[in-house]
Amino acid sequence: MDLALYLFYKKDTKKLAELLLSSLKDFSQETHMKSRDDYYTITNPNFSVIVQDDDELVSFTREELNLNINYCINISVFSRSPEEGLQIIFQAINTLTDKLDEDIALTDSESGVIFLRSDGQLVINSHCRENPNIYDCLMIYWMETLLRRIWQG
C-alpha cells in the first residue's frame, strides 16, 4: 500500500525528517532513520518513509488540489496487517498537523485523496471506503482522537 503525505514546511529536508521521525517514535520505538545524499529513509517493521525535497513530486498535486505545499513524503505500508502500520502513521500525522499550521494532504494510490487540510478546514474523502484498511483505521483513529479531546476539555 502506497501513500503520499503532502505538506508545507519552512525548514530544510533534514529538519522535516527529524520532526517526522520524532512523531513516529512517539508511537513506535522500532522506527529508525538513515540518510543518503539528498533524502532520508525512515523504516519500521510495518512501513518505510522517504523524505526528500523534489518539486516534481509536489507540483502536480499542488496545482490539482490548490494547496500550499512544498514536500511529498512517500510512505509504503508492507506489513501483513496494514492496520498496525496505518495506526502509527495516522498518529504521527495527527501530531504533525498539530505542529504545522499550513496545508496538508494524504493520498493513496488506490483511492486518491484520503484527507486534506486547506485553510484550516479538514476534509475527509468518504470515497476512500473503497480501501477498507485505510478508511476503517482512519475513522476509528479520528473518532478516538476526537473523543479524547472532548473528554480532556
Model description:
The structure is a single chain. This protein is of the alpha+beta class and 153 residues long. It is built from 4 helices and 8 strands; from the N terminus they run βαβββαβαβββα. Strands 2-3-4-5-1-6-7-8 form an 8-stranded antiparallel sheet. The longest helix is centred in the C-terminal third of the chain and has 21 residues, at 132-152. The model has no long low-confidence stretch (mean pLDDT 82).
List keywords for this structure.
153 residues; alpha+beta; 4 helices
Number of strands: 8
In spatial order, strands of the major sheet run 2-3-4-5-1-6-7-8
How far is it from the N-terminal to the C-terminal residue, by CA?
Answer: 36 Å
The topology string of helices and strands comes to EHEEEHEHEEEH
Poorly predicted residue ranges: none
What is the residue-mean pLDDT, rounded to a whole number? 82
Radius of gyration: 15 Å
Q: What is the general shape?
A: globular
